[in-house]
Write a structure and sequence with these properties.
By secondary structure, the protein is an all-alpha fold. The chain is built from 13 helices and no strands. It has helices at residues 2-25, 27-52, 57-108, 112-122, 125-131, 134-176, 179-220, 226-236, 242-259, 263-288, 296-310, 312-330, 336-342.
Length: 345
Amino acid sequence: MKELNSIKIFLGVISLAIVVVILKELKTIFVPLTFAAFLSFLFQPLNRFLLNKKIPVGITILLMVIIILVSFTLMGTIVYTSISSFVTEFPKYEAQISEMFQELIVQLEIPVEKVMDYLKNKVNWLQLADRFSLSKIISGTMGTFIDFLVKLLLTVAFMIFIVLERTKLIKRVERVLTIDEAKHSTNVVLKIEQSVKTYIVNKTFISLITGLISMFFIAVLGINFAVISGLLIFILNYIPNLGSIVASAFPMLICFIQFGISWQLIAISIALISTQMIMGNFVEPKMMGTGLKLSPLFVLIALIFWFWVWGPVGMILAVPISSAMNLIIKEIPALKIVSAFISSE
């Protein structure tokens, strides 16, 4: 019996490793599929409401697609406008950075002649210029935009098929299970749907409020790029713990370049840190409640793992994926020990 259990554990570890490799290598497919699954959970109340009103499924899907495309179009317009403003104003900051660098060299008494000789003899300027050439930057930007567009279309396509298959899949599962088993499975799916929906809606609201408050302070203190700073804080706030720190560093850096070590830098640092602490330690726990029930240590491990698997997008998806996994693992008696490590209860 012990040998049989050891074999099961060994095969389980191998299977898990294979699944991780597949997820990592085929992330171009699995990332849109995961987003599509979460979007289908998010739109499920609207979908259920329209079906109860005898609205055809085709019109329901069309409405969801329009909502998604309009939302991404608005977001893309804001991002494009903000980046264009940043690119236009960057030469001014480039001159200021150059002046600050020269002052640092003078204060530290660095021998400029040796630095220039090193840069002249050791740096391959032709290769560096080719790497940062305008044509390559443009082609890279276009490649990123096309990649984003393909993933968006894949996400919409996957979501359409998930919505179309959802009712049929439930009926097929009910045919092969007993009444009690079917009810149990339905309850698990509903718990996952409620957990993911609650997290996405509340996290979006909290991130939006945090971004708007931060943007208000940045604009009042006269710091440039208030819109793009607020947008960064809104997006990166989806990454628990680490995202808000990284996002707040950008407006602080702009303030330092713009005003140097000044009262504006101290004021914006206090304002951003206070906003993040109040929203993260008081508002978010009140809104989220104990719905996710995930251990903080496991959340940190999940962030690192999903970043390794799917990059920055994986960090955004880490918490809802972990929450869904925890709800599924709880229903498997043999894996309750694993749920004890994952859960905060």
